[in-house]
Design goal:
By secondary structure, this protein is of the alpha/beta class. The chain contains ten helices and twelve strands. Strand 8 and strand 9 form a beta hairpin.
Length: about 325
Amino acid sequence: MADSKLDREFLRSILTLAAKPAVDHLLVVMDLPLSKDDLRGRPIKKKIVYAVSEDQLAQNLRKQGYVCVTVPPYDYSRVEKVKVALVAAVTANVLKEGEDVLCMTGRTGARLPDTVVRLQIGRGFEEKASIDTQGLGAEFSPQVVEALVSLAMAIGHEGFEGHPIGTIFVLGDSTAVMEKSKQLTINPFQGISEAERNVLDPHIREALKNFAVLDGAFVIREDGVVLAAGRYLQTGEGNVELPLGLGARHAAAAAITVETNAVAISVSQSSGAVRVFKGGQSVLELQQARRRSSKRWSRWRWLSATKGSRGTRSGPSSSSVIRRR
């Protein structure tokens, strides 16, 4: 669809605002960079921070002198895209506390934006946009937190072999977390050297995706070393208050952050939503706009139910497929 006159006027208005001294940065959350014509006569190149999902595009933009961060390529809503980009930019120390930022984004694949958000880093964002400004503590590595959030987003979007799954990552205060949990199954990380089980290693993150099918939580040290998978969190889930609709998985994730100094990252099996809990409160929420596996999963579940009603056994039983949220 061709760009309308309103689309072009909207972009020009954003760029005019971005040029004002009161604005420190323009965060462009789009995989199609602004054109030279768009920027002609506007001294804002040093203010622009791109958030893109393609590594090659990020490299090209950096060669052109732009500041650029990469974000996962999943299809989130516009506000969710801004949240993810803010997490990446603050983690990379591109955006700093107290700075005023304009964030613009649009439909996936669109050349021009249709959404703009203005915020000040560190003053809070009503949609819970950033982790690092919520005071997690100096003991938590921003790189480890971002790696786990990105991993959680991948699990929420992709599931396992086309089927939705949910899980919990508990990061930090690992001694206390291990004391308040028990092993449900064999720990796949036991006996492996610490250098070979750190979440900053892409190969380990891929392994975690596969082990996410196990019941229970992952326990991870502040520096990213995975201590265990398949841990049952023995917490007082009644000590936390959560919004209606959040189930036992989220209650356990929130409760462990009340009883310890850990941070918990939960992935909802039913919706793919990712939430970060600290002190019993959700400090980051990322809702899926669309899941890659949702249609295939719905069809599989319908077929299983149909066959089951005819007395034909097909696939896993309902007790192993439909797990708590």
